[in-house]
Design goal:
about 140 residues, alpha+beta, 6-stranded antiparallel sheet, 6 strands, globular
Length: about 140
């Protein structure tokens, strides 16, 4: 999603998984390897990764990425239906595509949500607290 947004070139999931370093079926991919792959495909913005940051820093990073760099942020979360996510999952990446002016809410895109019959087809809103709960529930990190 972020590569297509920044370059206009869409890659299939199969193509990405065949060409990304460190992918292990059933385990996934580390944020470091994901960022390395994205940065190898994108010239206009180089993603930086962060781990263990506060909610304020998370929201500032997302704001910077979207408003100044014109690049969606990537956030590792543990999805939980009771906290507004489309389904329950562990160590999963979502793309944050928009943020409220006061940083109190975000719009996220989750390509996997469509596979589990999420009616908004993988695009939904979360409050800053909901996003932070998902972020703190796993130690995957974020990148912008």
């Amino acid at each position: 999603m972020v590569i297509k947004h920044l370059t206009g070139i869409g890659y299939t999931e199969k193509n990405i998984l065949q060409n990304i370093n460190g992918f292990e079926n059933g385990v996934g991919i580390s944020l470091s390897n994901l960022v390395e792959y994205i940065n190898s495909k994108v010239d206009t913005h180089k993603y930086k990764k962060f781990h263990g940051i506060t909610k304020d820093k998370l929201m500032v990073n997302i704001t910077f990425g979207i408003r100044l760099a014109k690049a969606a942020s990537i956030c590792g979360v543990q999805g939980d239906r009771k906290y507004g996510y489309a389904y329950d999952t562990k160590n999963h990446y979502i793309v944050v595509s928009a943020i409220a002016e006061d940083q109190s809410a975000v719009t996220v895109m989750d390509p996997w949500a469509g596979y589990v019959h999420e009616p908004q087809r993988g695009i939904f809103d979360l409050t800053d607290d909901q996003l932070m709960h998902g972020y703190l529930s796993t130690l995957v990190g974020m990148a912008y």
